[in-house]
Amino acid sequence: MPVFKDENAKKNPWYYVIEIGEGGQRKRTKKRGFKTKKEAQAAMVEAENSLNKGTYVQASKTSAKEFAAQWLSAKEHSVNKTTYDNYDRHIRIHIAPYFKDQEIGKISDLDCLRFITYLRKEKELASRSVKDVFKVLRAILDWGVMRGQLIKNPTRMIDMPKVEQQEVQVWDTEQVRKFDEIASKHREYVAFLLAYAAGLRQGELLGLRWKDIDFEQKTLSVVQTLSHDGKELTAGAKTATGTRLVSLDDKTIAELKKRKRLVAAEKLSAGGVYEDNDLVVATSIGTPLGPRNMLRTFYRLISEAELPELTIHDLRHTHATLLLKQGVHPKIVSERLGHASVKITLDLYSHLLPNMQKETADQFGKMLFGTN
């Protein structure tokens, strides 16, 4: 059948009409949204070929908002709570408000490119966040194709948004020592120590239990995390490799023993009011320490120490950077941090170590040629 032009359409006026078999009857279906006659004709030929092969899929007319909600519901029991909450946030704050009631089957690659621009320019999201949101949209549309509700995934026709290298802020050895001296006088000292001495994420150190620490072997196991809102303790780490064993230095072990004595005294004092979650870092009555409370204390200590301001996550970056500068193999650093691959570690920190290549060349020259 021929293609048509809608003279009243302000943009993409061309469309085609084809006949499909449904329940033993022939039914006409219309596909709109083509910029030129040639585009409409090409799409019509593709649809007719699919009909002849028996592979034609009539795109779902479900709204993008509703379709995303269906996908999220299907994910509820296959991902951990943190991942699910991230998906929910991306859909609720970005994807659903942008696409709204637009039919999921009518989202084009141009729509997806405009969505990326919207996230970058209007929402002013960081490049990493843009990519994370876009990955959720891609997964939703892939699900539609897999279920036979979409003809194709338009995000597969465009490149994944590029993540720009973000500058990582870290402290040097002297700055860490200065902060350590100030923080050691505070009740929550161990929390910060676990970040820059063991490389733990905030959720990991706030979810750490006493039974996860082996004082004889001087190790801790990362097997539980506290959610970002501080309301839920969840088994498992951020990634599969995030569940890991981390060796500890003597100073950290000594401070953990001191902390354990403090917790025992507080538990005895609180009596029946104490809520025993077996947490290393907790309030005086045993409840999880809220991430926001930890953050307020952190910035107060930074101010008192008169140090450059960092985020709590930057303490983890500091741990990694100091190890690498010390000459620790990146694979070991990657394992301590729980990265999915050593490539992530190198991508994050190699630009902070401009002297590493020079030192390597000097060492090689000394070994092979006896040069200094």
Automatic annotation (TrEMBL):
Listed PANTHER family: PHAGE INTEGRASE-RELATED, PROPHAGE INTEGRASE INTD-RELATED
Domain of life assignment: Bacteria
This protein's record includes keyword DNA-binding: yes
Species of origin: Paenibacillus aurantiacus
Family per record: Belongs to the 'phage' integrase family.
Pfam families reported in the protein's UniProt record: Arm-DNA-bind_4, Phage_int_SAM_3, Phage_integrase
Domain Core-binding (CB): 62-145
UniProt xrefs under InterPro entries: AP2-like_int_N (IPR028259), CB (IPR044068), DNA_brk_join_enz (IPR011010), Integrase-like_cat_sf (IPR013762), Integrase_catalytic (IPR002104), Integrase_recombinase_N (IPR010998), Integrase_SAM-like_N (IPR004107), Tyrosine_recombinase_XerCD (IPR050090)
Protein's UniProt name: Tyrosine-type recombinase/integrase
Keywords of the record: DNA integration, DNA recombination, DNA-binding
Tyr recombinase domain segment(s): 166-362
